[in-house]
Amino acid sequence: MTKNTDERTMRLAKRNALIFAIFYELTTREGYSFMQAYLFLEGIFGLNDCQIRRILRLKSKVVLSTDDLTKLAVILHRLSKSIGHI
């Protein structure tokens, strides 16, 4: 594999792990139905429900760090506040 292929593979693995984590949170802690979670993820990542299902069936190749997830949550929270003021 080339360096670009390896980098792309790692980016997709991280994206897939994030999708899995968000789907899990939405359906187990937030009470979303599977279809609601698919629609939410579709709106964020631009993937259809079939693609999301395929990602969810894959065994994750990476582990997301809690620090990275915390930073992402803080950034998203700030964005939601700034968008709310527009």
Detailed description of the structure:
The chain has one domain (3-84). The protein contains 4 helices and no strands. The chain is globular and about 45 Å long. 78% of the residues lie in helices and 0% in strands. It is mainly α and 86 residues long.
Brief description of this entry?
The protein is mostly helical and 86 residues long. Helices cover 78% and strands 0% of the residues. It has one domain (3-84).
Shape: globular
* Share of residues in strands: under 5%
Q: Report the uncertain regions.
A: none
User: Could you say which structural class the secondary elements and strand pairing correspond to?
Assistant: mainly alpha
- Number of domain units: 1
Rounded to the nearest angstrom, the radius of gyration is: 14 Å
Distance between the termini: 46 Å
Helix content: over 70%
Number of helices: 4
Count of extended strands: 0
Mean pLDDT: 89
Compressed to H and E, one letter per element, the order equals HHHH
Q: Largest sheet at a glance? A: none
